[in-house]
Design goal:
single chain, alpha/beta, eight-stranded parallel sheet
Length: 460
């Protein structure tokens, strides 16, 4: 099967030009002006942008949390991602304390295999690092193609590891050619503040935010940077939200340390004032919480300064009924919000359309850098001869409104209800096949493939 895309404006992390694209099978065969190859199908992309399929390296699908599960499955979540122009996601496998990495992977495979609509890979979250776990690191990297290992500096008793385990894990992961990623917040301080607010009867969603002040993230980010510098392990901070944390990274560069940083679309465009909406603020209860307007300014600047390399989502949706678990106590509200479908369009509208970032920077942080950092490049994340034909045809001028009534995520509210944005995904290709066309999904569950990833270098 061959497909010729004519006259689109091709955007990559480095280039912008009008040309034709020839797709044969699952990959890009040729790029050029006025291509005359015969093709089974031709699409006229005049007036549209053509860019690589988005890569969201931070999603939680069908994830157990606080006695329930996130509401998007690997089927519904990856389908929604495709509708929004994201063709590959990286989900998190969570090791249970006292259990092996192998057991955790089998659990996640049982939910994802044969159900995903879009392509996917896994990070491995290590919550119990011991000698048995250490022995599994090489197997995960060499045999399973899982090259990144998530750690938590919060959620004591469930997900958190201590600094002793962190350093030992970093040493082993570095040895085997992987990367350590981190949820960098000071769990002990947060637990103290949560208990204090509860004891004082301060139970509204606002106190979720007040229990995680900027200091808790700044301190943990600096401590993680120090441990990564000591071990020499490639390191990545997920969902960084604030000025203090980014300054910790900025300080690390003064000793010539490279530390990768991800923020998420919500931290660029939403702020903590939403927590003042009584219990409706539960829609935006996530960890770390939304921050202040000054932190948005810092994060946009960090993207342009090259300190923030990735914009992801931390997509972890819960139905409103699930959020109501915490109607009388903010600490019982499941943490997370839905965004897997909205990221690419929101980032274009609020970033490129408003002039905060260039088209090239947009592709860099949403597609190319995630692919490079996590061992998917050049198979994914770019438009080049031989790369997977994961492509988005995008109308940069079409205005539309975000609503739970029209989105495809399995959640009954939107964190961006009523937002009018500029820029609309029109057609999406995954491995050479048209999977989304004008709002219709043309493939069934099971089309998505698990992607084994290469070892990481710690550079991009």
């Amino acid at each position: 099967m061959s497909l010729l895309i004519k006259n689109g404006r091709i955007i990559t992390a480095t280039d912008a030009y009008v040309a034709d694209l020839l797709v044969e099978g699952e990959t890009i065969r040729a790029i050029g002006k006025d291509l005359s190859f015969p093709a089974d199908e031709t699409i006229d992309a005049t007036g549209l942008l053509v860019f690589p399929g988005g890569i969201d390296p931070h999603v939680h699908l069908d994830m157990p949390f606080m006695g329930t599960f996130s509401s998007d499955t690997h089927e519904t979540g990856t389908r929604a991602a495709l509708h929004g122009g994201t063709t590959t996601v990286i989900d998190f496998v969570l090791q249970k304390q006292g259990h092996s990495l192998k057991d955790a992977l089998a659990d996640w495979n049982s939910r994802a295999e044969g159900t995903a609509v879009g392509d996917y890979s896994f990070h491995m979250a290590v919550t119990d690092f011991n000698e048995n776990t250490r022995a599994e690191i090489q197997q995960m990297i060499e045999n399973e193609g899982i090259t990144s290992f998530k750690t938590f500096m919060a959620y004591k008793g469930a997900l958190m590891i201590d600094d002793r385990q962190m350093v030992a894990l970093m040493q082993e992961v570095k040895k085997q050619g992987g990367m350590v990623t981190v949820h960098a917040t000071n769990g002990d301080v947060i637990d103290y503040l949560v208990a204090k607010h509860r004891a004082e009867g301060k139970l509204a969603p606002l106190y979720h935010y007040l229990s995680q002040p900027e200091m808790t993230e700044a301190e943990a980010s600096g401590r993680f940077a120090d441990m990564a510098d000591y071990t020499g392990c490639p390191a990545y901070i997920v969902h960084l939200t604030c000025e203090g944390a980014l300054n910790a990274v900025r300080n690390a560069t003064r000793r010539n340390q490279k530390l990768f940083v991800e923020t998420c679309i919500q931290y660029l465009i939403l702020d903590a004032s939403l927590y003042e909406k009584d219990f409706e603020g539960a829609k935006w209860v996530m960890s770390p919480p939304l921050r202040e307007k000054k932190d948005q300014t810092t994060l946009w600047a960090g993207i342009n300064q090259g300190l923030v390399q990735v914009v992801a989502t931390d997509h972890c949706p819960f139905m409103w009924e699930q959020k109501l678990m915490g109607k009388d106590d903010f600490s019982k509200i499941p943490n997370g919000h839905p965004a897997i479908e909205n990221r690419m369009e929101l980032l274009y509208s609020e970033g490129v359309h408003t002039g905060k970032i260039t088209e090239n920077k947009y592709i860099e942080v949403a597609c190319t850098n995630p692919a490079k950092i996590f061992g998917l490049f050049p198979k994914k994340g770019t438009i080049a001869v031989g790369s997977d034909a994961d492509l988005v045809l995008f109308d940069p001028t079409e205005k539309h409104t975000i609503s739970a009534q029209t989105h495809h995520m399995h959640v009954d509210y939107s964190a961006y209800e009523g937002w009018e944005i500029t820029g609309k995904v029109k057609t999406v290709l995954l491995r050479g096949k048209v999977v989304i066309d004008n709002g219709n999904c043309l493939v069934e569950k099971g089309y998505g493939q698990f992607i084994k990833r290469n070892k990481v270098s710690g550079t991009i």
